[in-house]
Input
Amino acid sequence: MGQVAIVTGGSSGIGAAAAAYLAAHGCTVYEFSRHEKSGCASVRHVTADVTDEASVAAAVQSVLAAEGRIDILLNNAGFGISGAAEFTSVEEARRQLEVNFWGMVRVTRAVLPVMRAQRGGRIVNTSSVAAVTPIPFQTYYSVSKAAINSFTMSVGNEVRPYGIRISAVMPGDTRTGFTDARARSFAGDGEYGGRISRSVAKMEKDERGGAAASVVGAALGRAALSKSRKVFYTVGFVYQLVIFLMRLLPSTAANAILGKMYAE
Output
């Protein structure tokens, strides 16, 4: 029997590519998203809002009722905001974490009792290179991904005795609709000497020249199907090297490099 998988944010971009990859590799795949249905005929759509606990619980129960088990959860729902931390409202920062971090928490909490009862399961969280290399003027996005990494490591140890493995995949720049959907704010650009708009323009140029969604989605799918106990996966040799150097260098030097790249 193929494994039963849930992919959040699976209607477009990286999530849709990951869902299609899992379906092509024999999984029964359900994608959770608020509005859109999956463009892949072999992926089943369930309407769910990761910011609503009741919606998440109902969606997970519908999969369990249909399949009797849940083997894989791929937490991918998320969006980005950009702007100076000083000029970003607390409400907007909360919304960023509400989807990217707390959305992941809600779906994971709904699935864990099922996996514990099964004595097994696989959870993969979509993080980002920004979790390890916090990007100026993407502060709250970087914070949300760093929180995902901490959650992945800590909860992974909590549930390991039940045969549940949790990992996070850290993509770098990727060509998706994520770039155009980003909530941009250039408030304070004058006070910051135009550095906000310059930083965001560079960042978005890098994203548009990044890896295809299909490449990153396949990496997520491979991680979900892997039997390895590896905690973190980084997509692409260049980003693997970047993260290695950021961890190797003294923090002052590493942060100075990031500032040179994105804050001048």
